[in-house]
Amino acid sequence: MSINLATQLREGTKKSHTMAENVGFVKCFLKGTVEKSSYRKLTANLYFVYTAMEEEMERHSQHPIVSKIYFPQLNRKQSLEQDLHYYFGPNWREEVAPSEAAQAYVARIREVSATAPELLVAHSYTRYLGDLSGGQILKGIAQRAMNLPEGEGTAFYEFTAIPDEKAFKQLYRQRLDELDIDQATADRIVREANDAFGLNMKMFQELEGNLIKAIGQVLFNSLTYRRNRGSTETLATAEAE
């Protein structure tokens, strides 16, 4: 009997999904306010997270549960490397390091792989289905907000090995429902998915300080410009008189 894991994951993570969308950094991003320094730090963090997840997924590619949702065409490591080369230059490997929140995220993925590989399903679901669902929208926002050249800095959002993303998501959910697991295991996977959302949120929250500082600097520069312009206009008027 199917336990409908796909539905349980969708319903069981709704609150976490909403909370993640309401983190300040994400809200600003969705509204088109993207600060390049913060964004490239996020890209670096995602590189370490996806590297860990994809290494562990490959390690367990023959696992009776993990194997069912192991799709190498979803891998993001290589696309993130392309983006990091764009944002940091050819020596990007020497420039990037995981933040504290990213380190915790990576550590959790490694721990799950070593102790309960079936929970990797939760991490795969949380990241990849989200990427497939909103990738093109987020790509467009990033391009406009940071004035990126076409095809530069947004490889992360391109699933070139998946021609029909909607059909692929249906296949992925079908595989989730076909997993040979009991309800107790399903409950553990849903809990882990919620924890994964929490780990993502902490990475976003780390970046809020940088974003707020950047926005504040923009406002300060704007006010300074207006003040100086006003002083110049006053002086010009006085000289004319």
Structure description:
The chain is mainly α and 241 residues long. Helices cover 74% and strands 0% of the residues. The protein has helices at residues 5-12, 14-21, 24-30, 36-59, 77-88, 92-95, 100-115, 120-146, 165-178, 183-240. Helix 2 (14-21) runs parallel beside helix 10 and helix 4 packs antiparallel against helix 8 (120-146). The chain is globular, with a radius of gyration of 22 Å. Mean pLDDT is 89; it is low at 214-225.
Write the layout of secondary structure elements.
Elements: H1 5-12, H2 14-21, H3 24-30, H4 36-59, H5 77-88, H6 92-95, H7 100-115, H8 120-146, H9 165-178, H10 183-240
Helix pairs in contact: 1-10, 2-10, 4-5, 4-7, 4-8, 4-10, 7-10, 8-9, 8-10
List keywords for this structure.
Heme Oxygenase, Chain A; 10 helices; 0% strand; 241 residues; mainly alpha
